[in-house]
What does this fold into?
Amino acid sequence: MAEQIPIGFALPQVSPQLPVDVEAVGRVARRAEALGFDSLWTLEQVLGGSRNLEPVSLLSYVAAITERVRLGTSVFVLPQRNPVVLAKELATLDVLSGGRVVAGFGLGNDESTNAAFGIAKGRRIRRFTESLAVMRALWSEREATFAGDFFQLEDTRMEPKPVQQPGPPVWFGGRVEPALRRAVRLGDGWMGPGSSSIEAFRDHVAIVRRCLEKADRDPAGFTISKRIYLAIDDDRGRAERRLRDWFTHVYGSADLANEAAVWGPAEACYERIDEAIAIGAEHLVLHPLFDFDEHLEALARYASSAELLEPGR
It folds into this structure.
């Protein structure tokens, strides 16, 4: 087994079949905390055919039934969110949870739904960076002032502030080099997406490390993470079929499962998880797509001695 690092676990947020099993969400959250997992994580997909629960609402429920496990989102598509409202929602979640939020943001790669959010196409990066600046100002300043192309604040107050100051740690998604440079420049960490392979993660880590060096940033203040979609099953064919069905439901691409996911007997999956750690992961999110209770027990070896992720990392 590779060196122990903080390990998160994904909540059963996506429900390919109706109804949504709320009882399973609570059961998995409590058991993951009891086993010693570092954090619990959500996705975001507001529009589309995937049946999934909205992350802030879901994590507010989880905050009420847990005590110490950190609560992460990976990632909000920030250009499609109102940053003032989202800042308030995340500050509230941080207060309700006693300072356990990790906020993940991404640029998004599909502008086709922008009209549904009342957003004109174009200038996504500018909207993204302004949104982040607005949120951080509202979290940390008694009276926030910001003058941008999209958002303006003048001596604007938002209370209560998050427990974590100057705000919850901000992690970025993304996989292309400009996104990784932006993560290093503006974020506290980066999470490699579950929809990219462990082999691609090796290349991404190399880019992130070069960017950290070029920016003269202390690597100790920037967390490198990876989400891993996986299915532990001695019947590899059955696991593959179920993975392909899930990826079709969420991503609209069955073949993406073969490109990105890890599956097979437990030992084979452990080897791949350990490989991601050896590449340079300082944090992982283990994300089974079904049979969450069984996967919790099978993956407990990665949680029982995991140290808690320090706030701000």
In short: Residues 7-302 form a domain with the TIM Barrel fold (CATH 3.20.20.30). The chain is about 40% helix and 20% strand.
